Amino acid sequence: MDSALIPKGVKRCSLGRFSLWMIALTAILLWGVIAMLLCWFKGLNQTNMNDAYGFALWIWADLAVIALGGGAFFTGFLKYIVGKDELKNIINYAVVIGVVCYVSALLILAIDVGQPLRSWFIFWHANVHSMLTEVAFCLSCYLVVLIIEFLPLLFENPKLDRKPFFHHLSHNMHEIMAIFAATGAFLSFFHQGSLGGVSGVLFGRPFAFREGLFIWPWTFFLFTWSAAACGPCFTILITRITEKIAKKKLVKDNVIDLLAKISGWMLGTYIIAKIFDTWYWAAYTLPKQGFSLIDFYSNNPFYGIWILIVEIFVCGIIPAVILISSKGRKNKRLFMTAIILAVIGVCINRWVMVMQTMAAPVMTFEDWFMYYPSWQEVATTILPVAFGAIFISFAYRYLPIFPQESELNPID
Amino acid sequence: MFPFCFEWVWDMSHIVFMGGLWYALGIVGAGLTYCIVKAAKESSDNHSNGDH
């Protein structure tokens, strides 16, 4: 029934089967939408946020999806600026995943601000002394860039491509895509960094506070670095999941191998920088403020030293070593373990920089603040996952996302 | 925010922050306009040549 919309040379499941899949995802989406409407109409009292937790689950989810969406800017940077031409076979999917991640991030923020109708205030009444203003500027501009990078794909749909205007527009956009990619890389560098900078400048929160270079705390650079390292891992993970669901190979191994190798080196260098940062913070920054490392990993029911070991060793050093080594990348199980660990690692990093920062006491008379999200917060955090699955399903079905698909899966 | 708004102050923070925003929007807007105008011109040229 929808065969005219499906790209040439590829096979898709029946419309009935696709509709069933969509119904299941839409049910999850609706659960999130109900929670979102509750938050908008009844207010933020629907959440378990309080005076101790101005930032909570939503901000962690926001930071995590932005880091995972980093695959789009870094793959674009490698393809258009560095000239790694092989990555043209995965860049489309990286852009699709990037669009999902950044739409999700802005959606979560729209719920978190409580009054989405006043979102434009940040542009018109900008507080030019806040790193979050820079984040808001760069996030919204970068989403525009991602949509521009996505549009040529949309115009390549068989129905639209027949219209001369869309055919030429798609071609022209491809021609100057390097300019958009460079703008995207510039915007991403700053908003990824400033999200880290927000934690690093909190001199009243010794767990997060870091020294740095000029106005930028070290967390500024570490956040950008980790997004560039783990974002492509997320792109690879979603590609592999898509292949599993579609039951066919969509991208050749040499493309995945190249992206994974670069990610491995980025992750390896990042984790060395992170170890130095943690050591300097524990040995110099904290004692100056009257704290020791163990103060932040004891006397509470959840945050033990284990979380630091998991973040740095299990989800940092181990995946970096696997991805850097050629043998590690060739072993399918090891490779997927490394990819999953890297993705978990960046999520844990964002978790501790948001949630542990809020939980840790800063006054001698205070105790640890523990927090459990309400169901509305959980549902609105799952909402972008359902949205992402729907968006990716539509994009995979109707757009020529994988240039190698027809070659890898010839139709008889 | 624009320099003609009452909140505007001619200091480094406003110039860097808002200048950066306009710069990024300017590049993206100019690039997109170029693509659209060129595509419109090319498709009208094709149409007059009877290509489609």
Structural description of this entry:
The complex is a heterodimer of chains A (412) and B (52). With 412 residues, chain A is mainly alpha-helical. Chain A has one domain (49-371): Formate dehydrogenase/DMSO reductase fold, CATH 1.20.1630.10. Chain A has helices at 15-42, 57-68, 70-82, 88-112, 121-124, 131-155, 158-161, 164-175, 177-200, 218-246, 253-288, 305-324, 326-330, 332-359, 375-398, 405-408; strands at 212-213, 216-217. A two-stranded antiparallel ribbon of chain A has the order 1-2. In chain A, a hairpin with a 2-residue loop joins strand 1 and strand 2 (216-217). The radius of gyration of chain A is 22 Å and the shape is globular. Chain A starts with 14 loop residues before the first helix and ends with a helix. Chain B is rod-shaped, with a radius of gyration of 19 Å. Chain B is mainly alpha-helical. In chain B, 12% of the residues are buried. Chain B is built from one helix and no strands. At the A-B interface, helix 6, helix 8 and helix 9 of A face helix 1 of B.
Topology diagram in text:
The complex is a heterodimer of chains A (412) and B (52).
Chain A: H1 15-42, H2 57-68, H3 70-82, H4 88-112, H5 121-124, H6 131-155, H7 158-161, H8 164-175, H9 177-200, E1 212-213, E2 216-217, H10 218-246, H11 253-288, H12 305-324, H13 326-330, H14 332-359, H15 375-398, H16 405-408
Antiparallel strand pairs in A: 1-2
Helix pairs in contact in A: 1-15, 2-4, 2-14, 3-4, 3-9, 3-10, 4-6, 4-15, 6-8, 6-9, 9-10, 10-11, 10-14, 11-12, 12-14
Chain B: H1 12-49
Helical content of chain A stands at over 70%
The greatest interface here is:
A-B, 29 and 28 residues
Helix/strand-derived class of chain A?
mainly alpha
Report the sheet-strand fraction of chain A: under 5%
Strand order of the largest sheet of chain A: 1-2
Task: Decide which structural class fits the backbone of chain B.
Answer: mainly alpha
Low-confidence blocks of residues of chain A? none
What's the total number of strands of chain B?
Answer: 0
CATH superfamily of chain A: Formate dehydrogenase/DMSO reductase domain
Radius of gyration of chain A: 22 Å
Question: CATH class of chain A, anyone?
Answer: Mainly Alpha
